[in-house]
Every structure is written in structure tokens, then in C-alpha cells.
Amino acid sequence: MKKFYLFALAVAGLLFGACTSESVKEVAEPETGYGLIPGESSWLAVGIAMPGDPITRANEDLNDGTADEYAVKSGTLYLFKGANEDAATFFQSFPINTTFENETADEPVGASGIGNITSTSQRIVQEIKNPELGITDKLYAYVILNDEGNATGITATVGSTTGADFKKQQLKAIGIASEAAGYGAMGAKGLVMTSVPIATVAGGETTPADAEILTFTEINKEAIYKTKEEATAATSAVCIYVERAAVKVEVTVADDFAVQLDGDDTPTTIAAEDVKWALGNLNVAYYNTRQIDKTWLPYYNMQAIPSLKYRMVGRTPFFPDTHTPNPAYRTYFGTDINFDGNTGLINAELADAQYTHASKEVVYTYENTFDAESQVYKNTTYVGVKAKINDGDFFTIQGQPNTMLKTNADIVAVVKTRLRDVINQKILAINAAIKASTDPDIPAGSEVTYDVTVTVTEGTFDATTGKLPYTVTLGLANVKVGGADATTAQVTALETLAGANIGEVANPENSELYKYVGGISYYATRIQHFGDVETPWNAPAEAYNHYDLVYPANATQTIDGTATQYGTDRANAWLGRWGVVRNNWYSLTLKKISGIGSPVPEDFSGNETPDDNPPTSYFITAEVHILPWVKRTQEVNF
């Protein structure tokens, strides 16, 4: 005889809730599929958690973030049926409506097999109508949290929307206040969270090439119960793991943040209030689910430490005793919606007005990743920094980017040096012309003395480029004839004799002036994802702006005659070195400025310079940490 069953996803907690598989009710083996009678009722109790595995990466710290960041205010549970998650079709959804209560203290990592529990909820039990299932069909669950009013724009049609299509829909919101801007503060509805892709085989020191990538949660038939009361009381749980759709970026100005230019004996401390920052090169398009390409799993960098060799998957399972499948491991990268062409980025050139964020301020944004052929300035999300490094205006001249010229006299001194040969030639010509003079205003035999002056006259400042046009002119001053001050007629006569050698002089080549209004200098530091730890890199000096030398296709660098193998090819060695990935917290600490930056925010929209090009004449040092949340920290020196 056929039995009636109810299945439970048991909810011991909401976002970081406990999920267990104890005391599973024994039932007779169903004759077909799950043994559910189509159209009859079953009851769901939903447990939702964030993967809580121990730290598995050298540059990673688990961090819950703030209560607001894991708060759940609404949600939707989507149910699918089919032979596998990609082929499964949607059959039902229902809202998650409950009140979530914070625990008084976090449970220690490892306690009861659960790590970093920060929020729990009452059990959520929901009645559903049983679908018609084939003998090989499985039931799957997917969750979107904080999607009140369907701000995310995700839709599903019963019987036709497949799991594969559902996961690749465009997510229209990630829970920030200004979605169109691509960045902003958290919105009132909370950060959007969606089911997380996990791997079934560990990475790290051994290859996860044979792992499956699973995003939907399979609902086991052993978790099916007959009555609502049994489902409510059951301790069986099928946990649905979620991650935040947003990227989190935080910039902190170190207490000893200072500028020390060439020739400075001591550094000059820069106060935190004199530094503002902004995010550039941002996405505004997102997949519903983070997309993991299975072909990436065996990628490794030969120069990484062995325990972090296979970087795409974590090496320690989370909730190892309770998860289905067991074990389950974190995945660490993803294909964003613009991955191949990396089109549609905004804020490539930041406007001055966008530099509004202060030290320790948090900003949320969309993920931005790209293939191994596209790790260049125009594609990579960066932090733009605006720092006041001098009290008042100053100038630099091309060719001396780290020399601060504070007065017109400083500029004149540099220009005179640049024009030394030209000026000397003109002075010789002037001397010769005056010596041979027979002008009646200059009595024969009179001693004539004078100074040749160099005057630099500033033009109209170009606030768009930061350039300050200027003209250089030569003139005569302190003119004396026969020991007496020259008359106006005599000065005119001498200037006529000097001819074309007196007046405007062509500006020296490669000597453009730049003006830093108010002492403000701009910097930019690109955000690393895997960075130097898991995707180490070193380039020869001749690699500047040469992509194939920076990231050689065969992943072999030759420096000073010594060849270093980084991987079998460019993607194996460096895919994911740069970029920002959802549910990662990129924390940058500004440490030091050792050069003068740009007088205006830079435009990177067409800049094909590789992210790892040798350093320019100015740079900022920042320490970067990444937490899961994942938090990644980066120390920056300019």
C-alpha cells in the first residue's frame, strides 16, 4: 500500500541557523519517486545557513560582518523537480515570512559541527502541494532572501523554467540603496542573498577536478514526514546554504598613513579626514547565482604554497556531518555577466564629486570578474583615493613627477635648467650683437651691462587634464650704459639689437606643467582577488605595458635568464588574480604614499595596461584582507 509523506527542510535557523540530520524518521521505501501523492499536502521546515568552514586560505578570515548584513527581512523559496538541478523545472514557490532573533552570543567554531552562528529563527513550516514526480525525479530547493517586492526581478514559470535558466537570470538588485550607480550603502530591505554553489571535492593541495558543482539543495526522501506536527517536531534538516549577492569594500586610513617624497628626510603624516575614496570600474549586471565553471577546478599556480595550490575550492568541509552532499566545500570564484567582453562597466573615470567615502566607511557593489586575457586597467574594479598631501597648490613638471614645485620661482628654476642650452646660446648671440653695435643711442666705447631674465607666465588651468599651460620669455633687465641706468631709448635699441633672441622661447620638450589644486593628489589601486598568495607573479622590467610578457600565454617568466614556470597556461596560473567576487569583503588599509599621483581623477576606460605592469613613478601601498563574508585585505602604498 502507498504511504503518505511530508518532507522537511527543517529550520533550526535562518541565515546562520543550525542544521542537523539526527533522528531521521524511518519510513518504508516508496514505490515510486518520493512516494508523494500529487496534489496532496506536505509540509516544509526550512533551515538556511551560510557555509561555516574553518579558514582554508592564507589571506582569508571568516567574519560575520554586522547584524544588518546578515539580517533577513523577507525571502522566497523556489522548488524544482527533475533528474538533476540543471534539467529540473520549477513547480512552486512561497514567501518566507518569519521573525528572526539574534542569539546572545556566537557559538564557537566547531561546536555541534557549526561555525559562526550569528542569527537563528523559529522553525518555519510551510504547506505545499505535492508535485507529480517520475521515478528518477529529485526535489530541489533554492532560496532568495531580502527580495521584498521582487526587487531582484527573478521569475519562474511552472513546468518550463529550468534550473539552468533560472540560475542565469539577471539579478536586478543586490540590496543597495542605489542600484543604478553600481555602488552604495545597504538598502532598507537588507542585502540580497541567494543559494551558494558548492563543490563535492576539496581543493588546496589536491585537485578537485572530479568535483561536482551544486547550487540547488537536494531534498532527501528520508526527510519526508506524514503530518505537520511531525515536520515541526523533526530534527532532520536539509540545509540551504546562501551567500550575499553584494561585494563589500572597506577602506581604512592607517594611523601612520604618511607621504614621503624623493628627497624628504622624514615622512609627513596625512590625517584621515584629508583622505576620501571612491570605487571605479563597476558592474551593474549580475547573474541570479554565482557561476562556477567546472573546467576551472584543476587550475593551479605552481609557485603557490602547496596547501593553497588548487585555489578554486576550499580544502576544509563546512558542516561536514550534516550537509547533503557530504562533504561540501566552498568555491571561490565566478563568471560575472560581462565575463568575456567585460562590457558595460561604469565609473571608469571617477568624477571629483564621487570621492565622498571616509576612512572605515563600507560600500557595497556588484561583482566584476573577467577572463585571463583581460586583466587590464580598463576592466578591473579599483579604489580611487583623493589625498591632501600639501597645504595649498603645488605643481609638478613632466620628467620630475615626484618633485613638488610650490612657487613660481620653483617653476622658473626648473624651466631655466631645462632651457639652459637654449638660453646660453641666446645670451651669446645677444652679447655678440650688442658688442658689434653702431647704434647712435649707444655711444661708442660705452660699457654696456645687463641681465637676461627668464619669465614663466602661467596660462589657463585645464581642470579636466590637470595641465597648466605656460610661456617662457627672455628679457633684459638692470641695463646700464656707461655705468648709468639706461634710458628708454637705449633699452629699446638694445632689445632691437638682440632681435629674435629676446621674447618668447619654445617650451622645453616633455616639460608639461601640472597643477595640484589645494594640494590634492589622486591615486588608484586595483583590487586583487586571489592576489599574490594563490596566484603569485613576477615580471621582468621590459614587461611594461606588454601583455604577453606580463601574463605569458605559456605561464613561463624568464627574468635575468632564469625561467620560472607558473602554470600550464595563463588561465591556470593567473585566472582570478584580479577582480571582485560576491560575498567577499575587500578591506584595504592605506599605509604609505611615496610619490605624487595625478592632479585629477584618471580615466581608465581605454587603458590596456596590464594590472601587473611594473610600477609607475608614483604608487600607494595598501594592505588588503578578504573575509568570507570572505574578507580580503590589501595594504597600499602610493
Proportion of helical residues: 10-25%
CATH class of the largest domain: Mainly Beta
Major sheet, described briefly? 7 strands, mixed
How many helices in DSSP terms? 9
Rg over C-alpha atoms, rounded to the nearest angstrom: 34 Å
Low-confidence stretches: 1-18, 20-32, 99-122
Overall SS class: mainly beta
CATH-derived architecture of the largest domain:
Sandwich
Number of strands: 33
List keywords for this structure.
single chain, Immunoglobulin-like, 4 domains, 7-stranded mixed beta sheet
Question: Can you describe what's shown?
Answer:
With 638 residues, the protein is mainly beta. It has four domains: 203 residues; 238 residues, Sandwich (Immunoglobulin-like), CATH 2.60.40.3690; 88 residues, no CATH class; 29 residues, no CATH class. Helices cover 10% and strands 27% of the residues. The strands form nine sheets. Strands 2, 3, 4, 8, 10, 13 and 14 form a seven-stranded mixed beta sheet that branches. A hairpin with a 3-residue loop joins strand 32 and strand 33. The longest helix is centred in the last third of the chain and has 16 residues. The radius of gyration is 34 Å and the shape is elongated.
